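B., you asked whether I could sanity-check this one before it goes into the benchmark set. Here's the sequence:
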Amino acid sequence: MTKVKVGFVGVGGIAATHLKNLSANEAVDITSVCDIVEANAVRVGEEHQATAYTNAEEMLDNEVLDVLFICVPPFAHGDVEEKAAKKGIHLMVEKPVGLNVEEAKRKQAVIKQAGIICATGYCLRYLDTVKRAKEYLADKEIAMVRGHYISGFVETPWYRTMSKSGGQLVEQATHIMDMMRHLGGDIDKVYANMALRVSDEIENIDIPDVTSVNFTFTNGAVGHLDCSITQTDHRMGVEVLGKNFRVTIDGTGLTILENNEVVSADAEVDFYAEQDQAFIDAIVTGNTDGILSDYTNGLKTLAVTLAANESQDSGNVISLS
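And here's what the prediction gave me:
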């Protein structure tokens, strides 16, 4: 069997998880890696017997790739998606897909025109508990969707800078925002309040440490998401409310309450592994049904989080329609 030739742009952070999953996949050959930090590129290249680069364009010119994993910070995408797509290389783009909706739309158009397969890294959709929640909600009328992502400060230097990360909502809580969309439907209007309240001693920080966002969904439901970088532990989840029922994803666990009857379940899958397997299966078979977040979906979730930032700046309700 001919193996899928995979390259990486960015080898830090989440890339390590993808590299681990793909190195265990018999259908995959990791052939090249790229990182602006040469020592990291060389180290990961040696670990996977892959050619190391510090320039993504040079890698794309020199290598014959089937797939490219883009695992760079939000500000660092440049035009690598477009260049890879025009070469017919399939893409896995980590979240968020950028920091500018219009730029992401241009990338989306190039990806569509190229006819390639493109997944985005909203891995929580691949939880078996989330799948079960979505199936339960399929015929339900949803009244409210509540989400939270409460964690600590990330020491990575670019994270604290709004122009590079977009803030916690765009860079991290985007996972919960996406799950709220996945379970509750598309979002119509956004209104946000954010502040840097208790973390201004952090050098060069200009992102909020507390964020509160209200939504209206296109189906008429209302919603709310809180996120904060002020805590020493990590909590995240989504709660979906309707008449006489409540669906809760707490971390990765599921609880369904209906008419005072409770059903609970713990996740039994590695959602990162499920995501990567679904993507590689799509490349091998050409069937994309298993991909739960394509570039269009990544763009929609990005638009909601950036609308929240716009609402904070302007003080206005932002309409996505």
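One thing to flag: Residues 124-269+301-319 form a domain with the Dihydrodipicolinate Reductase; domain 2 fold (CATH 3.30.360.10). Otherwise nothing jumped out at me.
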